[in-house]
Amino acid sequence: MSSTLSSRRAASGSPGFLKRSQPRYGEKVIKVLLVAASLVSVLTTLGIVIALIPPAGEFFSKVNFGEFLTGTNWAPLFKPASFGVLPLVGGTLMVTLIALLVAVPLGLGAAVYLSEYANKRVRKIFKPLLEVLAGIPTVVYGFFALKAITPVLQSIWPAGDGPQIFNALAAGFVMGIMIIPTIASLAEDSMSAVPRALRDGAFALGSSRMQVSTRVVFPAALSGIVAAVVLGISRALGETMIVAIAAGGQPNLSFNPLEGMQTMTAFIAAAGIGDLPTGSTGYQTIFAVGALLFVMTLVMNLLSIRLVRKYREVYE
Fold first, then answer.
1. What pLDDT, in 10s, does the model give residues 125-163?
2. Structural domains for the chain
3. Disulfide check for 122: which of 118, 130, 163, 252 has CB 3.0–4.6 Å away?
4. For 44-60, how does the pLDDT look when each residue is reduced to its tens digit (9 = 90+)?
5. What pTM did the predictor assign?
């Protein structure tokens, strides 16, 4: 009897019973747009690979791959030409390392302060001011390194001749300042996402704020911090204008940051605006160096993904 009554009520559409909702076309449209947006990055990556492979393949059909990777002399536009890419790789790694030595301590320190020490009012003021650094054009950073940082380094250098006019130290230092907002902002977001209960539990056990920050919050947010550092490295590897202006345009395989160096991106920029005949070996070096830079960043991102997954913490 009760089942019959229930079926009658359901058939009559009386309140208390769920009705079939109307199709939500707006949600379907949003879903399609989100899928399309996610595909843009994939298609862009495929487009880059497709654009790089044919010219790079033609280059390596003329130049030995081992000579390209292990050679110590890079002079593709001179006769006799030399295609050892190590000077460009060394300059790129040198400038990137200096930038990380500046950006990682300062960026993570700023993130810890904004997440654990600053009150809401201070955070609302300082975080946007910090992120303003990310909006400054890189060409401005380049001239700042050349006209401001290099003279200061030359004047205060304690011994020897000091930095040259074009040097990797000034370029790396200013590049580190440029990527501080990237590391600080993402790391601070990761630390802020750590549940408050972990902090309260540590405080209840008598931990100081520094202990909570370094031994509780920092390890819990490690995956996000690693992602922030990797993004900063990617930004440093791909930077062009700062190194082109401040580090110089001469390939130099050296471990001395006071000397001028040329990075991979600076060479691509310089060669790309030159008068190189399309299809020539000199022109194809642009794609060979670009393909090597693409592989370097791809390997670094794959390693970072493994690290992020290894140290990722999921809270409910």
1. 888 888 788 888 889 999 999 999 999 998 888 877 788
2. 63-309 (1.10.3720.10)
3. 118
4. 888 888 888 888 888 88
5. 0.83
